[in-house]
Amino acid sequence: MKCDIPSNAISIYGFGSYFKSIRIHRDIDVLLLHRDTSIASCTFVLKCKQALMIAVPQIHVTMLSQSEEASLGFISKANAREVGSICAENFDSDIKRTASKLSY
Fold first, then answer.
1. Which CATH number fits domain 6-102: 1.10.260, 3.30.460, 3.30.420, 3.30.450?
2. pTM of the prediction?
3. Confidence of residue 24 (pLDDT cuts 50, 70, 90)
4. Which of 30, 37, 83, 101 is 20 to 30 Å from 14 at the Cα level?
5. What is the average per-residue pLDDT within 32-42?
6. In whole angstroms, what is the distance from residue 101 CA to residue 93 CA?
7. In this structure, are residues 63 and 31 in contact, taking their beta carbons and an 8 Å threshold?
8. Which residues sit opposite 51 in a β-bridge?
9. Distances, alpha carbon 45 to alpha carbons 18, 23, 32, in Å
10. Which residues on adjacent β-strands are paired with residue 10?
């Protein structure tokens, strides 16, 4: 789902054993990719992290801005795949939808 205000949106990428269909995994690793290092973007991604950690207790969260990810090449190196997004205007429903995708 596209957000009306890109600064109030994040993309969620999954990586690690849970996303490799390995039967035995102890956690669910995700990357929260946010726009930049502005206060608004960082505040929003922290709100998303907190809500996801409550909704999916076994989740482990990495957060990167788009420029940090571009510099590190994290998505490619980790073979991460996009699993969702969270927009400020749809926050609660996006958290619930994402949590249902990530639950055991």
1. 3.30.460
2. 0.91
3. confident
4. 37
5. 94
6. 12
7. yes
8. none
9. 22, 30, 7
10. 34, 86
